[in-house]
Amino acid sequence: MARKIGTESRHKYEENAQMFIISEMLKEARKEAKLTQEQLAEKAGTKKSYISRIENARGDIQLSTLIRIFEKGLNKKIGLTFL
Question: Which residue range or ranges hold the HTH cro/C1-type domain (predicted)?
Fold first, then answer.
């Protein structure tokens, strides 16, 4: 069933979908780098629990921390697109 654009349920659906995509990208990049969550957290200067929360699509993510995880922890650049 399609969700009507502009509704609260649609907004929540979009937010959850974006979080899922981010979580899958992080998991895939971490596994490609052959790092555990703990190793990635140490390299990025954050906690394993934070990496786990992102990978499980739970909780809010600070953009600055997400960038640090990818850039310092995984040596990858993040590109943002605003629509």
Answer: 26-69
Here the tokens at position 27 are: 């998991």
Sequence-distant (≥ 6) Cβ neighbours of residue 77 within 8 angstroms: 70, 71
CA dist., res. 22 & res. 16, Å (int) = 10
Cβ(68)–Cβ(45) below 8 Å: yes
Q: How far is CA 6 from the centre of its chain?
A: 24
What single-letter amino acid sits at 4?
A: K
- Cβ(19)–Cβ(13) below 8 Å: no
Which tokens hold the place of 31? 């596994």
27-56 pLDDT per residue, tens: 999 999 999 999 999 999 999 999 999 999
As a whole number of angstroms, the distance between CA 47 and CA 17 comes to: 24
**Domains (range + CATH), the chain:** 8-74 (1.10.260.40)
